[in-house]
Model the fold of this input.
Amino acid sequence: MIRIIGGQWRGRKLQVPNKQGLRPTPNRVRETLFNWLATHLPGSSCLDLFAGSGALGIEAASRGAKRVVLVEQERTIANSLKLQTKVFASNNNLEIICADALKFLKIAPSMPFDIVFLDPPFARDFIQPCCDLLEQHNWLKPHAHIYMEIEHQHKAIPNTHWQTIRQQNAGQVTFFLMING
Done:
């Protein structure tokens, strides 16, 4: 179980499916991230790639994001997210899509996003291909914020045109907040 730590759904619990490799962003990291994004969230559009537990996207919706799209490849996890969010997402600002994130990013969006959460499985090398596709297919608004997590031991920042504005370590994770432009 994880808790929503802020906003209108503060304190609500989300059941996390027991799947190997699924690692919800810890509360301490989420609290730091959402403090960084506090002034950018209200009214924003957010994309949560590799949604997993949904902690990042649902937290963003709870804190005032106008539109949040969560992309999760595992059908059982996506279905679990759909069931759980029906209970408290009465304003329909959450959309859950069951799809492979890389394939999803190869199609240009109808509208670019203000904030993207990029937290792929550590065992796979998805960061650079996702960053490339986000740029190539215009997924990002000018000055969009991109959050990413990588394994602490692999501190390679992807090759992008983005500027790192925040960086921190927590346990085995290094997390970044970057800005497009």
Notes: The chain has one domain: 2-180. The chain has a mean pLDDT of 89. The helical segments are 27-36, 55-62, 75-88, 101-105, 127-136.
